[in-house]
Structure formats: C-alpha cells, structure tokens
Amino acid sequence: MKLIVERTEKLSGAVTAPPSKSHTHRALIIASLAGGTSTIRNALPSDDCNATIVACRKFGAELEIGEALTVKGVGGKPQTPQTEIDVKSSGTTIRFLAAVSALCDGTTKLTGDGSIRARPFGPLLRSIKELGAERAESILGNGCPPLAITGKLKGGRTVVEGYSSQFVSALLVACPLAGTGSELLVRNLRSRPYVRMTLEHLERAGAKVRHEELKRFFIEGDQAYKPLQYTVPGDHSSAAFLRAAAYIADSEIQITGLDENDSQGDRALTGMMRELATGNMRELDLRDTPDLLPVAAVLGCHADGTTVLKNAPHARHKESDRISALCAELKKMGASVVERPDGLVVASSALKGAMLDGHGDHRIVMALAVAALDADGRSVIDHADTLSKSYPRFVEDLVRLGANIRVVEE
C-alpha cells in the first residue's frame, strides 16, 4: 500500500483521537492475569493490540471482542502456551509477555518479524533469570528474539537497564505474581512516563508496589490482580501527527477524546510546539518521549531557524532506526537535516514532493505524510500498510479534515 500526498492549503473540522495503544496493551495483559472478568472499553483495534489479544489467549485467558472487550483472566496462573507466540511487529507485546512467560511452569517461545528479531533483549532476559526463572535466553544466542523462557519466577533482587522502559514495566507486571517479594534497581531509565502508566494500571488492579523516584522498586510477592472496569483514553502519540498537520497548514482543528492530565508522555508535544514558535534556535530533549522524534523532525522543517532533537538514541531500536530513516527521507524532500548519534539537527526548509520509503514503520509513514502536506509537488510514500499497527484510520481522519491524501493499493 502506498500513500499519495499533495500540498494542502487548509485543514478544518473535528476528529476523535484513536484509543491509546500503550494503555490498551497494559489493560489487556493485566486483565488477562487477573481473577474474574474484566471489561475494557474503547480498546484500540490495531495489529499490535491484536497480537497481544492472540498471545493472552495462548496463556489461557478468554477474550471476547464486542462493543467492549471482555476478559476472563487466569487468576495469576497463566498456562504454558502450546505453540510459539508470534507477536508480528509488536515490541510491547513481546517485552511484557517475556516476563509473563516466566510465571508459567513450562517453556514459552516468543518470536516476531524482522524488526522484532533485531531488537536487543539481553537486560530483560538477565533480570528474569536473576528473579528465579530456570531459563531466559535468546535461542540464536545473539541477545535478540526468538526467545525461550522457562519459569518459574520466584522473586528476589535484580538491576534493570532502563534504556527500554518496557523492560521495567514488564517486570513490574510479572513480579507481583511471583512467589516472594522482588526489588528492582533501575539504571538509566528512559521514557519514564510509560513506567508511571504501568504503575497506574497496577494500582487499579490492586497491586502493591512502592518505588523511590522510579529508581528502586519494592514489590510484594504472591499478590492477586482484581478484575477491571476500564475505558481507554485517546492516544496522544497518534494525535501528535494531526496536531502537526494543523500546525504546518496554519489551521485550527478539533481533536476530541484526549485527556490532558493522562500519564502519556507524548502530551509534551504542546510544550514543544510552543518552543518551536519562539526564537531561531531550540533544543528539544526527547529522553522521555522518543516516539515524538518523527513528528518533531517534521515540525522542525517548518519552524524558523534550527531545531536540535537530542537524547533519543533509543529511537534507533523501534520498528526502524528512526533517526537514520528520518534523515534519509527528509533529505529526499530537500530538508536540511543532520544525523547525530542521539537525534537530529533540523533547519527550516522548503520541502518538495518525492518518492519516499516508509521503512516499515508506522510513525515514519505518518511523519512523512504530514511533511508532504506542505511540500511542493506530489509525494508517494511506500510501505504505508504499517498504519494498521497503531492508527488504522489515519488517512480517513486526514481526509475528513480536508487533506489531499489518498491510498493506492499495490
């Protein structure tokens, strides 16, 4: 699937933000581990969340999809999956469920597509073993999936590398169900708002977790999760692309369904946009919000002066190396952009249409589509089918707002 995008002079109207992918994953997994029946409303219908649904069923949870998602959990005792779990391209699914696998008696094997099989898991595997699992290893011995996990998680003490906050979140979800208490010492934590989000979901399920400034966590063992009644809020990460489109088209639109007090880190786009509107030089620190790198890079092309996007080396380990991919594709459009190890330097640039590669990455595709709305000429963006990963109705919503964008099936 390809996107054809041409310059759009003005946007107007209202759309509802898609449900949060991050909240949906956490609610699904914790409800699947809980006792009783949970109801999750407004869950995101996407490829990633479907991967979590399929996997949770393999652990014995019963999930029914209707107007709401109904989840009958396993009461803290997931069964060992009878077949390998294929998470497709969902990094959240495989990280969280690697830790959940250690609650099973037998061996669970987890794999995914090429992007998943290139992601490092060493720190998480090491911590799972230190917390008592019999086996937690990369089957190919390269620190990446496919993975093999054999329980059972006992509890104890481990040091966790936090360059992926999902390593920490995964252990936080599994450890309350271990036999004894656990202590996690976290080093170099990035994307901190997502750990806070995990803690909110655990608190909602009745878990007892204490922490010292997200650096040291104390988790009681042998706990039980209670069933949930939960409505997923709108996704600030996906809505960021709509907001950026309105910004570069000098337009006002209405995006409903967002909670400005939610724990999602990508609420920070509001402050970033204020910075982009002032001065000729600014630095945006993306340590806690790496998913904003693509949209911030596009906004940097349209802001006066120079924008430095820094402190986001973890953006290289997503569905693509987002730093390198953005640099390559924006240069095709005539942007003045320089790649750095931890980010990009983007100067104000007049963009032109180009043949672009989405790099199999939903956020790269959305960022390039937004950039193309203010480019001179037509842009063609390849590999756009990845939009179904997080924002299936992205094109539909932009069209509703008046964007000159369409889908071409290959």
What does this structure look like?
This protein folds into two domains: 2-18 and 234-408, UDP-n-acetylglucosamine1-carboxyvinyl-transferase, Chain (Alpha-beta prism), CATH 3.65.10; 21-231, Alpha-beta prism (UDP-n-acetylglucosamine1-carboxyvinyl-transferase, Chain), CATH 3.65.10.10. It has helices at 21-33, 47-58, 91-101, 122-130, 165-174, 192-204, 236-248, 269-276, 293-302, 322-332, 362-372, 394-400; strands at residues 2-5, 14-16, 37-41, 62-65, 69-72, 85-86, 107-111, 135-138, 147-150, 156-161, 182-187, 209-212, 216-219, 229-231, 254-256, 281-285, 306-310, 336-340, 343-347, 355-357, 379-382, 405-408. The chain is globular and about 60 Å long. By secondary structure, it is of the alpha/beta class. Strands 20-21-1-22 form a four-stranded mixed sheet, covered by helices on one side. Strands 4-5-3-14 form a four-stranded mixed sheet, covered by helices on one side. A four-stranded mixed sheet has the order 6-7-9-8. 31% of the residues lie in helices and 22% in strands.
